[in-house]
Design a protein that fits this description.
This protein has 18 helices and eleven strands. Helix 2 packs parallel to helix 3, helix 3 (92-102) crosses helix 5 (129-141) and helix 7 crosses helix 8. Helix content is 39%, strand content 12%. The chain is globular and about 50 Å long. The protein has two domains: 31-204, Aldolase class I (TIM Barrel, Alpha-Beta Barrel), CATH 3.20.20.70; 261-369, no CATH class. Residues 206-237, 292-308 and 369-387 have low confidence and may be disordered. Strands 1-2-3-4-5 form a five-stranded parallel sheet, covered by helices on one side. By secondary structure, the protein is of the alpha/beta class.
């Protein structure tokens, strides 16, 4: 669940109201579900608890405070808690309660503030800069530790110093910047409104402008290119044309054969971490967990990556479900998805076996050479682990 419409987020298409599949359903983890997932006591082994929000924002969860209350009282070895949020939801009372709960353990809440009020909305659509600042001030005043994280674009980079000074003035314990890791083509993010109009683009700090994407022409093109497609004037049909054409532009255009041998350097086994999504499925990392869109597993990504296998094999998919298995059973099962992937990428492998791993952490990819996700995550996890 999320209140925002960020254009590069995988929960929607380019910031519109369209989802990548027709079967999308918002979902959140309940306290009872969460307790059931850790019924074997495996939670006692964890020292870090990071609420990342792959397809949603934890603050939108109706039982968010209850889950955190449970973690901070019943998970004895938790040394550090981190929450990532756009920070635009809830009222002052809620944020005060959050701070009261989190003060039990070392923690930080990371507020996504992409510039000042006149630039923040360019990416963080449907969020309120003023409300985020108010919520952050309330949280800090109640004793919470807050980090300001700013996604840097060409359009807001001139405000970097001013944002840093404001963060210090407001009492943020840290200020950090990052590049947008979800550019449509590795260069810029396209931003659309509810009417499927490409209103503007957001560029990396050193990327020159690119032309806007013409949704109208794309719909006409799709209509003509599909044989025996009956023309329709309904919004649903037009939306599907737009979505299908837009998805095509997201698919990688890599000149690499499926049997090409590649290598990765995965930080997550090193950090001893695991990712659990809102359905209770266990993945090696959050990048993996983004590869399906709902409980029917028929999203875009499952159709174009190796995860297509588990979308067709219910038994295989359930091997990673905490609803049907305990964490102990999943991690000790050599046939589980988590262990299968870790075993695969620990040595050179054919790219088709773990294409998500290659795209994110492949040693020959742009991500590896320029963004280096694994080093960023490695530094953050290891720093906290060693403190």
């Amino acid at each position: 669940m999320c209140n925002a419409a960020c254009p590069s987020c995988p929960r929607n298409v380019a910031g519109t109201d369209l989802h990548y599949t027709d079967t999308w359903a918002d979902n959140y983890t309940t306290l009872d579900q969460f307790k059931h997932w850790w019924r074997d006591g495996y939670n006692n082994f964890f020292t870090h608890f990071w609420i990342n929000g792959n397809l949603g924002d934890f603050v939108m969860n109706p039982e968010a405070l209850d889950i955190l209350d449970y973690v901070t009282t019943d998970w004895p070895n938790i040394e550090y808690i981190q929450i990532n949020t756009n920070g635009s939801a809830r009222n002052s009372e809620w944020w005060t309660k959050l701070a009261t709960i989190l003060k039990r353990r070392p923690h930080v809440v990371e507020f996504a503030l992409d510039g000042l009020e006149d630039t923040h909305h360019l990416y963080r659509q449907r969020t309120s800069w003023t409300q985020i600042i108010k919520n952050a001030k309330t949280f800090i005043a109640a004793g919470g530790n807050a980090r300001w994280i700013m996604t840097q674009f060409e359009e807001n980079k001139h405000q970097l110093e001013e944002c840093q000074l404001l963060a210090k003035e407001l009492g943020f314990c840290e200020f950090t910047i990052r590049s947008n890791a979800r550019y449509d083509n590795g260069q810029y993010a396209r931003v659309f409104n509810k009417n499927l109009e490409n209103t503007h683009n957001l560029y990396g700090a050193d990327i020159s402008a690119q032309p806007l994407f013409d949704a109208t022409k794309s719909k006409i093109h799709i209509q003509k290119s599909i044989k025996n497609q009956q023309a329709s004037t309904t919004l649903i049909k037009k939306s599907k044309w737009f979505r299908n054409n837009y998805i095509k532009t997201l698919l990688p255009n890599e000149n690499i054969a499926p049997d090409t041998t590649v290598e990765v350097d995965c930080v997550f086994p090193k950090a001893g971490s695991i990712y659990v999504d809102s359905f209770g499925n266990v993945w090696p990392c959050c990048f993996m967990g983004i590869n399906y869109s709902d409980d029917k597993r028929d999203g875009l990504h499952t159709k174009v990556t190796y995860l297509d296998k588990i979308s067709k094999d219910e038994t295989y998919f359930n091997s990673q479900s905490l609803t049907n298995n305990t964490m102990t059973e999943i991690l000790t099962n050599k046939q589980s998805f988590v262990n299968h992937i870790v075993d695969t990428i620990n040595k050179p492998f054919e790219v088709s076996e773990a294409i998500t791993c290659y795209r994110v952490c492949g040693k020959s990819t742009e991500s590896w050479n320029n963004k280096n996700y694994h080093k960023m995550l490695d530094a953050r996890w290891m720093r906290k682990k060693n403190e």
